[in-house]
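Running co-folding for protoporphyrin IX containing FE.
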Amino acid sequence: MDAQGLKDNFAQVAQHGDAVALFFYSDLFLRNPGLREMFSIGMSHQRDRLLSALGRIVAQVDNLPELVPFVRQLGADHRKFGVEALHYPEVGQSLVATLRYFSGAAWTEALARDWTDAYTLLAKVMVEAAEEDAKQRPAWWNARVIAHERRRFDLAVMRLVTDRPLPFQAGQSVAVEVPARPRMWRYYSMANAPRPDNTLDFHVRLIDGGPVSPVLVRAAVPGDWLKLGPPVGTMTFDERSGRDVLLVAGSTGLAPLKAILERIALSPAPPRVHLFFGARTTDGLYDLDDLTKRAAGSPWLTVVPAVSDDRAEGTAEQGVLADVVARHGLWRDHDAYVCGSPAMVDATTESLVRLGLGTDRIRSDKFADA
Ligand SMILES: Cc1cc2nc3c(=O)[nH]c(=O)nc-3n(C[C@H](O)[C@H](O)[C@H](O)COP(=O)(O)OP(=O)(O)OC[C@H]3O[C@@H](n4cnc5c(N)ncnc54)[C@H](O)[C@@H]3O)c2cc1C
Ligand code: HEM
């Protein structure tokens, strides 16, 4: 298989932008009308995800150690969408038709063969991973809302209880589906370390114009049932490192870092932890009371709130997190965990690298596509 040929061809096709996804899905649904109901109605969210995943797969086609775990996870994650082995050839056919259409005169028999071989292998890995996953855990969990607290009109802290244990590591997220928005799965991070009573906390911020977050923040009430997918994410606590810890949270980016904080609190000898919690305005620091209480009871924990737009009051620092963190010292000997919007994560990471922290010591999660 000519890996470089596939990469070049994909790059050429991707230049056609949104039209590629539009062609692919219309081809898929024309050939297989039955598949349409598997996808959500407004699909712009899904469109760039599938194509960007394909881009990532093609870019790593000659780096199997990185690629295989990603593809296996993707295959297992597709169980919650109701995807089965028989659907893969249908998607493969439309994918090759799309590539052929946008390649124009550059399309060759060799490209057709290589794409078909590559897709067949990819589908095989995804299907096998899904089959193995099915032996170990359900495709999704049902969860009931047992508490819902609106801390501001656009910020909610909620507690769910799952119908079965959902094993996860502090720092991970799950896809959530609400009945009012069928098939629109969105990721949310658990804000607690695993508990024996199967309860999970989530922090949700309403994103203007988004379909799912307003339902969770403004409409969800105790007694509602939701579906949760399997846990994902690699921003988990490195318990073997032994180094001090820096946590940097922008808005609800706090959720997974609070889970890591709880996980650290369970250690017999916790490292020193600095947690920076930032928001634009003072009332955006929706969980500061709880964090302050935790710091008062934990000599190893320092909490630094920061606001960028309001004038800072009380213990809060003024400025964006990247600057506030930099002002507070040298983090060269720390492990850093950074979570929030793409802009905040990028700026903070850059700032830490400038201060001498290696990128291998920075784990991060972004709450939206950059
Ligand atoms: C791994 C992961 C974990 C996440 N964990 C949380 C969490 O714990 N709490 C939480 O509130 N959200 C979290 N999110 C974001 C969440 O999945 C949704 O995208 C968000 O709630 C908006 O959903 P929506 O359906 O209303 O709008 P969407 O259709 O998802 O988004 C509408 C638009 O807003 C952008 N957007 C979404 N979230 C943000 C953001 N935070 N900052 C800037 N732009 C954004 C999207 O990229 C899109 O362009 C997480 C996202 C990921 C990928
Ligand atoms: C090689 C093949 C495939 C790749 C690379 C791929 C990639 C992706 C990605 C990255 C997502 C977004 C996942 C998320 O946000 O959690 C997704 C969602 C989805 N995929 Fe696939 N996929 C593949 C095959 C398939 C097949 C065979 C089907 C079956 C018809 C399918 C159906 C879906 C559905 C229904 C969704 C959710 C859509 C929505 O949110 O509306 N995928 N896929």
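Result summary
The chain has three domains: 3-136, 141-228, 244-366.
The chain has eleven helices and twelve strands.
Job closed.
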